[in-house]
């Protein structure tokens, strides 16, 4: 009597890429995968992907998702400790908050394999962090040049991992993944950036006909308008004066955002050409500015949409590899 061999499902790796505020879409991707019964065996993250990955593997994604969807722009400003020493934002205030309100287990104690990607500032080398606390590993990966200050890890100053490996497919492979799902946040952004002009010109829509908004809706729209105005003032502070041309002069965050997008897109194309993922997800969030961390709900929904749109391919991959 013959017994049919049990087919083992492939070891799934999830490569969470860099991309600043667009990284909240990683939350939606993970939620949708879990809804489908797909729990990655390996998680590797770069920059914002390292932060979301750290929260996920430590079992705190649901609470984290609730928190980020409640963030307002005022909240985001409150977490930014402006320093101008190595970067505009030191990052200590935000990560101290995470340490106080979230568990911070050691990577070695996790059920899933986990690693973050950072860049050794002195040597320019790619560093895979696979030991120590998950939040330290995430912080070392989140040091976007010019914006977030470098972080000292194991005696070395670390810069953002997106400088060397924006979508860490290679890390997932090295940690044993056979099927890699990659989330590339920078694939559709070349030539696009959200300027202070784009934000300051956003206006509230007038109600049509007899449609009179409820007081709560009016209050919410008023708050959103105030946040747009506040963000415009921040943009103006970091911008050059207009020169009279039709196109506004690029501001500080415009230059950083566009430069990082170009660099990471080129590096990602090169690396993934040699080691492509089995499934490549590219969230369509081209209107997100580099600091739009208060727009989490939209990004999370886009992450979920992408996974559900790829459901048929995912099921095929899970069954044939």
UniProtKB/TrEMBL annotation:
Lipid metabolism found in the keyword field: yes
Keywords, in A-Z order: Hydrolase, Lipid degradation, Lipid metabolism
Motif mapping: GXSXG: 45-49
Native species: Alcanivorax quisquiliarum
InterPro entries per record: Acyl_Trfase/lysoPLipase, NTE, PNPLA_dom
PANTHER family: NEUROPATHY TARGET ESTERASE/SWISS CHEESE D.MELANOGASTER, NTE FAMILY PROTEIN RSSA
Domain PNPLA intervals: 14-173
SUPFAM superfamilies attached to this UniProt entry: FabD/lysophospholipase-like (SSF52151)
PROSITE patterns per record: PNPLA
Record's protein name: Patatin-like phospholipase family protein
Keyword Transcription applies: no
Top-level taxon of origin: Bacteria
Extent of motif DGA/G: 160-162
Active site per UniProt: 47, 160
Pfam families in UniProt: Patatin (PF01734)
């Amino acid at each position: 009597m013959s017994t049919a061999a049990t087919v083992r499902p492939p070891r799934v790796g999830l490569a969470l890429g860099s991309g600043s505020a667009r990284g909240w879409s990683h939350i939606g991707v993970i939620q949708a995968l879990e809804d489908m019964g797909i729990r990655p065996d390996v998680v590797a993250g770069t920059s914002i992907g390292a932060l979301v990955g750290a929260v996920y593997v430590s079992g705190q994604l649901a609470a984290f998702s609730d928190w980020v969807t409640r963030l307002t722009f005022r909240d985001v400003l409150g977490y930014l400790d402006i320093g101008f020493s190595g970067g505009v934002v030191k990052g200590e205030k935000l990560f101290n908050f995470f340490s106080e309100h979230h568990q911070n287990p050691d990577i070695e104690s996790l059920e899933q394999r986990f690693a973050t990607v950072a860049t050794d500032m002195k040597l320019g080398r790619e560093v895979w962090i696979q030991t120590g606390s998950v939040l330290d590993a995430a912080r070392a990966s989140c040091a976007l040049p010019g914006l977030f200050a470098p972080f000292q890890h194991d005696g070395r100053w670390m810069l953002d991992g997106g400088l060397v490996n924006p979508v860490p497919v290679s890390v997932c492979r090295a940690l044993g993944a056979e099927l890699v799902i990659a989330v590339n946040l920078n694939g559709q952004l070349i030539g696009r950036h959200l300027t202070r002009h784009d934000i300051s010109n956003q206006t509230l829509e007038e109600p049509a006909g007899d449609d009179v908004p409820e007081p709560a809706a009016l209050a919410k729209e008023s708050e959103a308008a105030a946040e747009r105005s506040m963000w415009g003032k921040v943009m103006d502070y970091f911008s050059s004066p207009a020169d009279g041309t039709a196109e506004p002069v690029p501001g500080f965050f415009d230059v950083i955002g566009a430069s990082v997008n170009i660099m990471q897109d080129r590096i990602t194309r090169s690396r993934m050409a040699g080691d492509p993922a089995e499934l490549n997800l590219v969230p369509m969030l081209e209107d997100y500015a580099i600091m739009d961390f208060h727009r989490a709900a939209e990004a999370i929904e886009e992450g979920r949409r992408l996974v559900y749109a790829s459901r048929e391919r995912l099921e095929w991959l899970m069954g044939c590899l």
